[in-house]
Every structure is written in structure tokens, then in C-alpha cells.
Amino acid sequence: MKKTYGYIRVSTKSQEVNGFGLQAQKEAVISHGADPSLVFQDTFTGVKCDRPQFSQLLEVLEQGDTLIASKLDRIARSVTEGVAVIKKLVEKGVTINILNMGIFDNRPANFFQLQVMFAMAEFERELILERMQEGRVLARQREGYRDGRKPKWSIKQYNHAMKLLQHHSYKEVSEITGIPIPTLKAERRKRKDAESKTEFKII
Fold this sequence. Notes:
The chain is an alpha/beta fold. The protein has helices spanning 13-17, 22-31, 52-60, 72-75, 79-92, 108-140, 155-164, 170-177, 181-202, and strands spanning 4-10, 39-43, 66-69, 95-98, 102-104. A hairpin with a 3-residue loop joins strand 4 (95-98) and strand 5 (102-104). Helix 5 (79-92) packs antiparallel against helix 6 (108-140).
């Protein structure tokens, strides 16, 4: 027996204030055919597609069923993720009705629309990756940049500690600056190696 499900979600309090809360979404999906007893809802603030009720809904949807959601961003955090979800359900034989976009099923016309959306999603993903790469290149050009995890101690703190080591022991400098002795030794060794390489190049 075919069933018509609804899915609603809010992730921030502002959505409740702006009139896009759970009740408004519920009324919308029910008015478009969702069974009131088959409306799944989540209130979730994470960034992954691991919303508990949505995950449960994906498991119960079967061929011939229909899923109704008010907007694409209710079932996904990005166009790429949304298209992937729709594509998976369409291949399963489920019809998806995104109220602000239209109906998606395995009919040729809708399949073509889905392919266009998929291409747009891929383009969006490529743009994001390109921006991330450009950001890394610009970051490397900044003075004091270190690749990987952000260092606990700043260049200024290290410079201060290195000056103190000229007249104090590692233990004393560690007590003054709070920088662990192994970290001080590693930084000093790294600077000596850098100086050695510079001297070699000059010669």
C-alpha cells in the first residue's frame, strides 16, 4: 500500500521566529497530501545528515511511496547533499515532492531535471574546493603561517622564550612562559637548523 510521508525540520530558534517553524512546515506538507500520522520531524543543530528521524524515515520509505518536504534545505545542508538524497530515493522508486521546487520521480522529464540539479551541485562543490584551495595559498603567503593544526604558541611567544634562553635555563624559561621544556627544545633546534641552512646558502 502506497504511503505519503512528510518531513519537517528546524535547526535554529530564528526559524521559529521567522514563521518557518515546525508547525508551519507541518501544515504545509499535510495540506499537500502527507498523512498526518506519517510526518517525521527533527530539531537538530548539527552539520551532518545524521538527523535521527530523517534517518529512520529513509529506512521505512518503499517503492511507490511519496515524501513531501517544504524546501530542499529541510532534507539536506547543501545542494550536493540534497541531490544525492533525491537521486537515491528516485532510484528506489520513491516520489519526492519539494514544495518550493516540484516533484521528482523516475519519469524522463523529472530525471532530466534531476541531472541538471546534479550538474549544478557538482559545479557548486568544485567552486567550494577551488575557494578552499585559494584560501590555503593566500594563508601560506602570510608571515608566520604554519600548515596543519593551529599552533598553541605564537611566534611572538616563541621569540620571547628564545631570548630568555640566552640567560636562563629551560626550566626557568618554561616556568616564566608556560611553554613546556620539550617544546622549547624543539623550537630552538628548529631555529638552529634554519640558521645553518641559511649560512650554507650564503657561503
